[in-house]
Amino acid sequence: MSHRPAMPLFRAVASHPFLHFLLLGGLLLALDVASGDDGEAGPREPLVVEADDVELLVAEHRRIHGREPDTAARHALLEEWIEEELTVREARRLGLLEGDLLIHRRLGEKLELVGASAGPDALERALALGLDRHDPIVRNRLVQRLHRRWASRAEPAETDDADLRELLEAHPERYRKPAAARVSHVYLAPSRSREVAEDLLATLRRDHVPGEDAPKHGDAFPGERHLPLRNLPKLESTLGRDVAEQVAEAPLGRWVGPVRSAWGWHLLWVHERRAGRLPAVEEIRTRLLHDLRQVRRDDAIERAEEALRQSWPVEMRTEGAT
Amino acid sequence: MKPSLKPFRRLVILVTFLSTLLCVPGLLAQAPAAADPGAAAESECDDFAPFRTPFFGDLHVHTSFSMDTIYFQGNRESDPAAAYRFAQGDPIGFPPIDAAGNPAFTVQLDRPLDFAAVTDHAEYLGETRICFTPGHPGYDSPECELLRGPNAFLAFQEWFSPLTAPIAAVPDRFDLCAADPDCLEVAGSVWQETQDAAHAADDSTSACEFTTFVGYEWTGSPEGANLHRNVIFANEEVPDLPVSYLDEPRPEKLLESIESECLDAGIGCDAVIIPHNSNLSLGRMFSPTLSDGTPFSAADADRFARLQPLMEIVQHKGISECHPALNTNDELCSFGILANQSIAPIPGPPPPISPFSFARGALAEGLAQQQDLGVNPFELGFVGGTDDHNAAAGFVDEEEYSGHLGALDSPLPGRLFQVDATPGGLTVIWAEENSRRSLFDALRRREVYATSGPRPVVRFFGGFGLPSAMCGEPSFAPLGYAHGVPMGGILDAPGARQAAGATSPAPRFAVSALQDPGTVSDPGAPLERMQVIKGWVDDQGTTHETVYDVAGTPGSTGSPSLCTVWTDPDFDADQAAFYYARVLQTPTPRWHAIQCDAAGISCEDPEAVPPPFAPCCDPDIPREIQERAWTSPIWYYPNAE
Q: At what angle do helices B359-373 and B298-307 cross, to 10 degrees?
């Protein structure tokens, strides 16, 4: 389908049971779309698909991906194109072209190019000249607007915490908070040898130096020697993977190391560690509501697209092409 | 230690730090507010550092909500939510998008950002406008009648090109929502969706992984002069609709509007307005005049100071620090200079390059204005951004640079038409924690720096009383805060808060930098040197500048860290001045050199180079660059309180 967000989340969630009660709303919208009855909107002229259309798609695929599409890919390409073409036609049928500033601007620019920009019936002349046909900007804009209209007309469903919890638990990898640790460290300049670092480690342990005394040992360092409870990915982004791995595994309340960062040697004292966790619904309610709304909108668009595909007459004249 | 004792432990550590540093008990009261143990109780995040942590982000990102993304044939799926997911490490599809909706390829950050703001163009963002709001005073105006009538198309044409018309020629009020009954409902929701996406992506748990800001871009380009500004809101309180260039083409009125609708509205709203691409403004961005040419009054200067504490010094469309034609003694000014001076073609020969197009000139003019008006309208901190139009927030990698303009500059030959453009840079904020409140407070006080892409960790403090041996002390930053001001600050009067035994008639500046550590697969480059750039105005009103090398060696193989305390050898207590630090990496390959080489282009025989790849061999574009960071300045004013 032409409207697929980059994330697979929404696709997977769309098949989830808790969305089934939304189907009623989606079906109503689909019926609305399928009936084609939109007040003054015109009829749906059949879409005729020629062999040339298929060849254009194949050529574009070849240009972008550098290889021929196989049979399954050709079928998918054609289906996607038909779907987009129907969406564009439906948008035009509903008058979304006349109402759009960006499209008008685009057509105006093209009229200027052909030296025909003056006059009050400029839009009619632009359309008569077919300046909108096959124009990617016009097409993109029409699809964007119709998708938006379909999404906004989806029946708003009731949402309770159970729905949000189901979304949360269906995709823990998406919502999980990372592990964190609170660390103090002694720093040694990179010019020092590993032996020096190991000697210092031995001294710290032998003298039972507590983690709190980290700033009193080692070399000068502009950064903090006592770090707060920090997410391990953030720790890794400055002190590097080796340090982060040590921090993740080291026993608490002891000196460990030496371990290298881009900046030098470190002897680590991990005060505490907190495991990664899945937040409660209450903690991320805004985000879950937003994500659920996105799922519903994508669902609404998908159903409207399917209804359009079912109800709009398509004639295939592509013998030998697919 | 049990978790319940954590606040107490924090207090012990803080008190230990402060008491080892400060000999005079009275100085405890003057430590920065965030070092006050009481402040810890207000934190929202587990990761709260009283002496602040650097957070990396991008405050300039466009998505499919921007009007020009459709023109660039960008990915129409890449909406604000996609941009925020990308900022946190998810992949995003790049154009060209084929008929099946499949992107040509995907890209991904190798290190997530800590914060981001999507700043789509306000022009046409919310197509709800006055002409379609019955009852609004402008509803019955002739312009609106025209727009609602059968000749609406003519009206659009007439004033869409005004995006580059002279400011005085832009119609006073106009609407872009056409005769579409859905327009109000659909379009008005776009601004709401922008906000919703920001709030959803902002981490509301105490893990504070990621912060977002609601924002937008005001895109004024009168007569080809780029006056674009991003408006970044502090929190959820935002105006009902963003004020766009089409609503208000005069920059000073934009500032007034944000001031009255936000800062002074009594609803807890705050915002900063961040100008970008002054390099393309034909000298208008930082000219101390209103849009009709009237020189600033003190009230104007005050408003500019209050609403515009920052400028975006680096982004895709070039760097606005300085220019080789103006700052002739600084050969490092040639980095990131664009051939164009304006955002749109202008008639006639290009005018002389104006100092008001660059940070140095703006800062210097600010000092001059302060002498005349008592207020400095251009006390500007530095931030960096990408201005990406693919929703790829913070995507600054040179090797993987895939353009910023959708299908216009991807794949490779397409972006060679603008070979002088760069992937852009990042903003780094020194804040106690990664929350909106903490980050925004830092933006306001300008404790921020910009980088041209990499992530060095840079500290900059200034003070007459900074201890000269700071670099060797165990607690560099606490000393800086205790005895000086951080980047973005204004120097205290001599004698205030000085460390025991630290007396200096001239201000001292402590600069420290740690190289970008990079990642396992892509290590960062070491640091070549650090500089302090000083600008000042003499009593004749003439501006001067000097670039001082303060650490490191030009041409060296570099070092993972540099630190120095430098005293101004040419200080004159009667002359106002600004100082900022510039930290340079050792040279690394530029994006076009990497990508042209990978495409097999050799410049040995220019005749053999296919025409679309000719810019690969442009002799004016260096194959190696020195990525860098610029700290916000520290200002000195004579007779400071």
A: 140
Are B186 and A152 inside 8 Å of each other by CB?
Answer: yes
Minimum CA–CA partner of B459 in chain A: A222
Residue B370 burial (10 A CB sphere; 0-12, 13-18, 19+): buried
Q: What is the pLDDT of residues B225-257, one digit of tens each?
A: 999 999 999 999 998 878 887 778 889 999 999
Q: Percent of chain B having pLDDT more than 70?
A: 81
A with B: how many residue pairs have Cβ under 8 Å apart? 218
Q: State phi, psi for B566 to the nearest 5 degrees.
A: -120, 135
pLDDT tens digits for range A18-55: 444 344 444 545 555 655 445 557 888 899 998 888 88
Would you state the pLDDT for residue B363? 98
- Give the pLDDT score at B224: 85
Residue B223: pLDDT band (50, 70, 90) is confident
pLDDT tens per residue across span B435-461? 999 999 999 999 999 999 999 999 999
Nearest-CB residue to B48 (from A101, A228, A284): A228
Contact assignment for A6 to B563 by CB distance below 8 Å: no
Q: Nearest chain B Cα to A134, which residue?
A: B99
Query: Nearest 5 degrees, angle CA A150-CA A151-CA A156?
Result: 115
Q: Name the residue among B595, B593, B589, B580 with its Cα closest to residue B626.
A: B589
Burial of B433 (0-12, 13-18, 19+ CB in 10 A): buried
Q: Which residues of A touch B520 (CB under 8 A)?
A: 240-241
Determine, for residues B46 and A264 on separate chains, whether the beta-carbon distance falls below 8 Å. Answer: no
Average of per-residue pLDDT across B21-50: 56
CA distances from B452 to B16, B258, B300, B386, B396 (A): 37, 29, 32, 9, 8
Alpha-carbon distance of B559 to B527, in angstroms, equals: 5
Contacting residues of A for B563, CB less than 8 Å apart: 220, 222
The ipTM (two decimal places) reads: 0.85
* Residue B474 to residue A225, Cβ atoms within 8 A: yes
| A168 CB-near residues (< 8 Å, 6+ apart) | A175, A278, A279, A281, A284, A288
Name the residue facing B67 among A102, A286, A290 (closest C-beta).
A102
CB B242 within 8 A of CB B126: yes
From residue B536, give the alpha-carbon distance in Å to each of A43, A130, B221, B254, B359: 72, 61, 31, 30, 13
Report whether pLDDT(B197) > 60.
yes
Closest A-chain CA to B12:
A212
> Which residues of chain B lie closer than 8 angstroms to A92, CB-CB?
none
| pLDDT tens digits, A255-275 | 999 999 999 999 999 999 999
Task: Return d(Cα A292, Cα A156) in angstroms, integer.
Answer: 11
Residue B289 has pLDDT above 70, yes or no: yes
Q: Which carries the bigger pLDDT value, residue A6 or residue B600?
A: B600
Asked if residue B412 lies in contact with residue B433, where contact means CB atoms within 8 angstroms, the answer is no
In angstroms, what is the C-alpha Rg of chain B? 25
CB contact under 8 A, A239 and B517: yes
- From the list B82, B186, B197, the residue facing A6 with the nearest CB is B82
SS3 A320: coil
CB B387, CB B347: distance < 8 Å: no
Instruction: Give the Cα-Cα-Cα angle B208, B211, B216 (nearest 5 degrees).
Output: 170
A106 touches chain B (CB under 8 A): yes
Task: Render the burial of A154-180: b for 16+ CB within 10 Å, e for the rest.
Answer: beebeeeeebbebbbeebeeebebbbb
* pTM score above 0.90: no
CA distances from B46 to A231, A279, B205, B242 (A): 9, 14, 9, 34
Q: Residue B197 and residue A290: Cβ atoms within 8 Å?
A: yes
Interatomic CA distance for residues B254 and B240, integer angstroms: 15
